[in-house]
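Appendix B, Record 12. Input sequence as logged:
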Amino acid sequence: MSDKLNTEQLFRSRFEGAELSPSATSWNAIQRKLRWKQFLRFRPGRFNIWYAGALLLTATALAVLLAGEREPAGQDTGEELNTTLHQSENSAVENTKESVNAAGQDRSKRMQAESSATASEAEIDSSAEADQLDSLSMKEQAETLRKNFNETAHIPAEAEDPGEARAAALSYFTTSIQRGCVPLTVQFTDQSMHATAYSWDFGTGDKSREQNPLYEFREAGRYVVTLTTENPGKLPTTSRMMIEVLAAPEADFQIEEGMEGIDNHVVLNLVNYSTDGSVFAWNLVNAACNNCSDWSSIEYQPTLELKSISPESMSVRLEVINEHGCSDTAVRSLPLIVQSSDTRIKFATAFSPNPSGPGDGSFAPGTQRMDLFYPIYIEVPVEFHMRVYTRRGELVFESNELFRGWDGYMLQERAKNDVYVWMAEGKWADGESFSLHGDVTVLGNQYW
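Logged structural output:
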């Protein structure tokens, strides 16, 4: 007995504290057993059979959800909310488990350096700690997720259909015209879906909140019109469209009396002051601004013979058209009215002599003077003789000149305000003679 104890004491004294290393084959066998036990044991820091099962269950649940028909928005809202929260809680579990990986990995490295018995005890302690942390994190994460979901769902408390409240409005509109001449009036028609509020921006600084506004663009240019709509949940959507407003020309002209034409008929010069025009259309119009004569012209600056003016003619109308098809119109009154198509000469019914003294009475064709009594030629005669008498038959003026009239003076003295009688005789170019008479009133300082 004492020998045995001595041998044992000898063995202990010689080998106590010695380090024994297993062979490579034995160490590999030990490692395989440890890895298999670790795979079967639930540990947050390592992939194991529990994670594999969770992945299989998650894939199965996703397949069922994708294969099923989606129910209409607004129905079973409570079930949809619970399903979303359940899925969110599962995600929170996975996220919480991943957050423990760092601590688990460090602890696993230390466990591999220790003996198998010490490693097993450490693994048990680590698993218990991870399970407790996992349980607490799941509850906290699920509660936080539920709170955030309620805050971001944007479902009004009074909404009868929460699914409809979450659906975004589809913004869209149409126009009565997209391209036209200034001023351009456009009718905008809303075609949006799920819209409850409208905001229009016409690109000119003007805005509107009507659903179907009518707007007039007063200046040429390109304008981007924007419609912004909102659904019951205040989610906005926007649509845009370009409106092109084309510039219009400006019509303007003046009527000036000119010299007689080649057939001795007095003409009117139509002086064109229009801008940005490419086509010009001239016409004679009556008081209602309707065409009333066969005369018309497309020249830029035509002449109008007085013989072409019908008795109904009151004005000359000019329509100017530019290259875009936009137009503008100007109307000017005729300087004289022709009573009949046979009228070739006209006389004024009143005038006011110049108070500064007598003159020679000469005038130029096309002149409009209020201080002379003279004939207005529609057709210039080849012979002409005019005389002016008082009502008692006294001759106060006589002339054989075509362009010389009475200045209202008698023997260098101004004629008194009264009515005087005139007579005119002559011959036209076609050989026809004429003899005309009438009266004229002398007015004192009427235009001075």
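The first strand starts at residue 173 and ends at 175.
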